[in-house]
């Protein structure tokens, strides 16, 4: 079998409301680049990649000459062809390769009539549990769905819990002053005393502020304390002073960083992202290292549509040491580009697909509709906040939004 073509289509799919984070916002929609890898046997595989609100079509077009004629089963050879570590000093293609890997695994599964999880060692669970992903939100175009006050946050969490069955709640912070977000976090704990909590300010806090905040929540039912500050050394200092497991998806996202973390421990839980790490197989390899050294693992979300969600589900299915609920932005989407519409949650979990390959298919009408919407709206800067057009954050930050505004 040989690859004969790769096609990339950029789509934008609306969210229920703009989602705020420490560096800016998702501006009421996700921008994703969908790829289709075609073969000489008529089998097409699907992949997906984000890009901080921007298209990656041109980047994939530049890889076409690497792919034509390549056997999609020869993934390790393709990895070095695209992501040679020395060549990557000049052009880091790890995330591009991840989307291509998704498509090649999809092709393999369709060729062999097997789900991807069977190609990766077989599943150890039939469904993957997820945490709610709570964001402070700007009002949508109808002036609705804002999350700014403590009561709005509690009401939003209760709505998600009732609708989807979540029992783990993650608050994406770093937007308002830490004292205000501490009030919000404590209120969540009081409102949902049986549920686990996570706090993630996206590395916006200083080490000292991270320690102060962490010590103030030690008595709560914390799952982990995610990226309160930037850098392995900063996280190490926080870990030495706060009795909550630390977690990251920012400072341990490759094997060099994983080795450094193991040699001088800074982070207890590694959040594996099928895009950031360069594919499902790299995440499984990293999970094996974590299993050896007794580090926790979870699955990180980088703003997925159904194709990438399928990769997260197949990853979650085959990793024995997945001891934490996965993250997903998925419930914030109003629609998806896959046949059948959005995947469904049941008791806070989603079933692992059992169809050949990734177990999903593209809805061509929706792909065309949301590609046209992207052409109308264009991209957006992930690191800007539409409600504060002249603002940009420092690291550590001290330029907080006003919760009364």
TrEMBL record:
Pfam families: MR_MLE_C, MR_MLE_N. One of its GO terms (molecular function) is metal ion binding. Keywords: Metal-binding. Residues 150-245 form the Mandelate racemase/muconate lactonizing enzyme C-terminal domain. Its EC number is 4.2.1.40. SMART domains: MR_MLE (SM00922). It comes from the Bacteria. Pathway: Carbohydrate acid metabolism; D-glucarate degradation; 2,5-dioxopentanoate from D-glucarate: step 1/2. It catalyses: D-glucarate = 5-dehydro-4-deoxy-D-glucarate + H2O. The keyword Metal-binding applies. SUPFAM superfamilies: Enolase C-terminal domain-like (SSF51604), Enolase N-terminal domain-like (SSF54826). This is glucarate dehydratase.
